Amino acid sequence: MRTSVEILSLTDAAYRPMASDFLRMTPRMRAQTTMIGQIRNIYRDGLVPSGVKADVVDVGCGAGPDLNRFLRAKLFSGHQINAIGLDRVPEMLAVAGQHFGIPSDRLIEGCMTEFKAFFPANTVVAIWCRSTLFNVPEELHPSVLNQFNDSLIPNGSLFLRLKMGKGINQRPDGRQEKLYEKAEIRTVLGQAGLRVSRIVPYKDELGRTDVSWMGVWARKPG
Ligand SMILES: C[S@@+](CC[C@H](N)C(=O)[O-])C[C@H]1O[C@@H](n2cnc3c(N)ncnc32)[C@H](O)[C@@H]1O
Asked: Going by CATH, does the domain composed of 4-219 fall within 3.40.50.150?
């Protein structure tokens, strides 16, 4: 049985050579436009306290396509979105910098299991976590989600894209994928203090018939 540290480092080793692949494997999701609208509404409703560090954190931003779209979006005229990407793998962040020209102050090399070290309590308006949480060892999910909840401002928004199913999918390259059913992710998020508002099923963009996804929207209560 592998330890969490071993799983995290096998995951890094698997992703390192794949950094450029994630440019073509990350098509735009409509949910990203919805997320930008939600952030705009939180500002419009006057719910953003002072001391916020990020309008959105792209957790496991990979090679940066979603982060790049966030950075190019305007919240209001004259207010560019303050987006930051976090990823454990430096090769991913390097591609984000080289391919999209994302400045280094928008990219953090770090692990989501230490989210609060980067984003203290009530400093993040929204968290975008696409196809990433599942790689984290399952026993660490409650801690990661608790930290997300803590770092979000009240009424802050969370989007998770997860693979649907039961148990753990062990990939030959060492990565593990924790699969979720709707009821289970509702429970885990609820235990972390986050309220699920919507779960949307998605087909696999690469056409795999044995893989299905869900988008999970949650909110920190106000
Ligand atoms: C499947 S890729 C998804 C990348 C991007 N979000 C997308 O949708 O294309 C997973 C990414 O999460 C990163 N990652 C995995 N575990 C992580 C962790 N514990 N903390 C931060 N990033 C992590 C990997 O390095 C990789 O870039």
From this structure: yes
- What is the pLDDT averaged over residues 153-178? 96
Residue 45 alpha carbon to ligand 1 centre in Å: 32
What are the E-state strand segments in 17-119? Answer: 54-59, 74-76, 79-80, 83-87, 107-109
Instruction: Kindly list the protein residues whose Cβ atom lies closer than 6 A to any atom of ligand 1.
Output: 8, 11, 15, 22, 25-26, 60-62, 86-89, 92, 111-113, 130-132, 135-136
23 close to 65: Cβ distance less than 8 angstroms: yes
- The pLDDT of residue 10: 96
Stated pTM of the model = 0.97
Average pLDDT for 196-213: 92
Q: Which protein residue's CA is at the shortest distance from atom 13 of ligand 1?
A: 60
